[in-house]
Hints:
The two termini are about 30 Å apart. The chain is globular. By secondary structure, the chain is an alpha/beta fold. A hairpin with a 2-residue loop joins strand 7 and strand 8 (about 225-230). It is about 45% helix and about 15% strand. The protein has helices spanning about 35-40, 75-95, 105-125, 145-150, 170, 175-185, 195-210, 235-245, 245-260, 280-290, 315-335, 350-360, 375-380, 415-425, 430-445, 445-460, 465-470, and strands spanning about 5-10, 45-50, 70, 130-135, 155-160, 190, 215-220, 225-230, 265-270, 300-305, 340-345, 360-365, 390-395, 405-410. The longest helix has 21 residues, at about 105-125.
Amino acid sequence: xxxxxxxxxxxxxxxxxxxxxxxxxxxxxxxxxxxxxxxxxxxxxxxxxxxxxxxxxxxxxxxxxxxxxxxxxxxxxxxxxxxxxxxxxxxxxxxxxxxxxxxxxxxxxxxxxxxxxxxxxxxxxxxxxxxxxxxxxxxxxxxxxxxxxxxxxxxxxxxxxxxxxxxxxxxxxxxxxxxxxxxxxxxxxxxxxxxxxxxxxxxxxxxxxxxxxxxxxxxxxxxxxxxxxxxxxxxxxxxxxxxxxxxxxxxxxxxxxxxxxxxxxxxxxxxxxxxxxxxxxxxxxxxxxxxxxxxxxxxxxxxxxxxxxxxxxxxxxxxxxxxxxxxxxxxxxxxxxxxxxxxxxxxxxxxxxxxxxxxxxxxxxxxxxxxxxxxxxxxxxxxxxxxxxxxxxxxxxxxxxxxxxxxxxxxxxxxxxxxxxxxxxxxxxxxxxxxxxxxxxxxxxxxxxxxxxxxxxxxxxxxxxxxxxxxx
Length: 472
């Protein structure tokens, strides 16, 4: 079995679900931007990506992609139901997002979570060469670092959490809180999106496990585990170049014409998830229409809501509520050929998404809680003409890096309405100054800067970055 000096461990493999006509697989961009971040690095070293290929049953054989080995971990139907849909997305996900929906707790879900994490750890131990670097990703696999350290104490292990990490009073609700913390502490470096998350983690380790902990270091037996904030980003130059392409600019003009050539277009692009604040956004827009502050002929809202986790009951109910509200608003305020809201549920390719970003005069990114939200960063990068207003939730991780956005509290309906009006009515000088400042930040702190920052902290000797060819 071929072994690798760098192993990335994530719930999913970074490949398209379907192969190309010639049988080749292609890189698939993940919502968290992980694939975009690591692709340039993985091409320069023997690397393996450990993950689930989708579907149930025996693990399929997946060919190498750009020289990166794909190592599949199988999931059964029970694993998918109890680990992925259950403990990961009906227990941890809502609790880590401020309990927007009530987390559910079932013993069989925890048993499946343990079982699947053990399977991932064993698969990783098989493919990692002596002294290799292993980078474990996200809330699906919080036990893997600890399990892997038991199996392979020679490895250098990093863990990164892409979602928020909750305050102690929420995390303490988990029946298996100590086990989850110990699992994460198997890593040499635990990374979070925001400094507050690292602080929450340190507080919990001190309280639950009674270990000496600061916001930067935790003593575990004879080791020191480092923790810190490493806000993930995007490939800023790639998005800017895509948005500047003539075909994308032409597509943007056609889209605006198809929308009725309104004076202003508001755009929101979300997964269909209760953390994204879609219902609150629709209510705010409805009330602005009712009060006459926004008129259908002059302004349109384009809401992209791509279905997600459709077998989870909470998501089915949310989709029904959103579609009912969109129908009500269009029925009350729309006209023939002039809907108040253009509601789309299909996913878009990168070029089409860039065209939508160029169309939008206002981008409304108003989650109730989000680890980062890269849509906000993509929109800013795509505004190559220095126009466009970003309406951004204070509770998105991106708000800490993009303070020039029009920041709102999505729980405050009146504040959300006023923020939307401010973005719609802002003058070109104000809009231009804000977007230029945000674009400058993103060009400096792009996806490669994030990867370099984390990997250099994981191996402060610098040898890792040299091996990965990422020092430049």
